[in-house]
Amino acid sequence: MTILRQTAFLFALFLCSCALAQQPYGTAKSAEKLQGLSDLETIDQMMYYIPGIGSSSREDLLRQNIKPYMMPIRQVPQTGMEWAYALADALEYYVNLNSNFKDNMSPDYISMSLANAGTRPNLVDGLGLLMNAGTVSAAIVPYNSSTIPNSVYSVARFGIENFGYLFRPETKPRNRVFEARKALSRGNPVIVELSTDDRFTGLKSGTYEPDGPATEKHFMTVIGYDGEAETFELRSSLGRNWGAGGYVTISYEDFGELAQTGYVLIPKE
Fold first, then answer.
1. Tens-digit pLDDT profile for residues 70-87
2. How far apart are CA 182 and CA 18, in angstroms?
């Protein structure tokens, strides 16, 4: 039995039980301030439903893709920065939804702020920074910056209300697929920590199928799914010459096995 059939019943239950919990982007949220939510029911209540993108229509439940709403693919200066670029990608998606301009968020500010605070930069601490302080536009702290200018203290900050753990390494593979699809069906990108083989960094194909032991870790943004083909589409920060213009598709089965942790942002009003 395919993963699609295995998760179909759960996905139907989600539609029935969570439709009332879906809240439009921009509406008030709970006062919950715990950094990083793990309870899936609480995440359901706080996760945004984005009108015009997320939908409960039959077609959108079969396939969804938010690629047209994402900014152009960028290239990290080193793979150790992928997590910061994935955070900036997801945050700017929400920031630009309700604006007439398209602004890039600075991943370098996130990383350097954590380093300057004596913290070893990583995704979870980056999420905490977005909750507590926010980042700035890449026009203020450009890509590949080595210092933070004083001007950051007088410009707008962009952050999040909270974030949720959609799944963890101990989560069953089929549930990882289900939770990622659920978030995307509402119009939310999903940041994932993906375990891959050693040929992933140099991938030149638009499809990824593991062909060896998992020796690398990459942070990707899940931006679409196709229930008929049983695939997810992932966005990288490895540049346009990687994969298919910076994107790659992966089967539900491989995603369920390789996606270790999944995160969804809960943006501010």
1. 999 999 998 889 999 999
2. 10
